[in-house]
Amino acid sequence: MADETKAKAPEAMKEEPAKAPAAEAKPEAKKEAPTAKAAAPKEGAPAGAGAAGAATPAVAKRTAAEKAARQALKHRARNRAVASGLKTFITKAERLIVAKDLNAAGIAVEQALRALDRAAKKGIIHPNNAARRKSRLMHKLNIGKVSASKN
């Protein structure tokens, strides 16, 4: 019996090296797969960051993650609308100041200041960003008033 097992053992060794090249071929196939995935966005990357520029977000694995993704889309839409309106108020106020229509400019500046405060309160912009913009806008208005009073 011992002779039979010894005789089988070398045969098994001969078969294993024959299998080894086939096993080595599999890692090569695995190496090719990550390069194909390299074009796809990473998990932490924002939606639409893929090489093809697809705007489809990654599929969430948990229901909580799915809900968070839905909320993020809603918040992003709201934040973009508020930020856009904010820019409109500021631009309108600056144009009125340049046009030396100071009564209308004062009203427009008040609207812009309220919009800046609201955006900071909601977290759309940082409070320091709001304060800096308000300061610059008031400075422009005050300079406009001084230049108008000199004329």
Task: List its traits.
single chain, 151 residues, mainly alpha, Methane Monooxygenase Hydroxylase, Chain G, domain 1, 0% strand, elongated
Summarize the structure.
This protein is an all-alpha fold and 151 residues long. It has four helices and no strands. It has helices spanning 2-37, 63-98, 102-122, 127-150.
Descriptive notes:
By secondary structure, the protein is mainly α. The protein has a domain at 64-151: Methane Monooxygenase Hydroxylase, Chain G, domain 1 (Up-down Bundle), CATH 1.20.58.110. 77% of the residues lie in helices and 0% in strands. It contains 4 helices and no strands. The protein has helices at residues 2-37, 63-98, 102-122, 127-150. Helix 3 (102-122) runs antiparallel to helix 4. The longest helix is centred in the N-terminal third of the chain and has 36 residues, at 2-37. The protein is elongated. The model has no long low-confidence stretch (mean pLDDT 78).
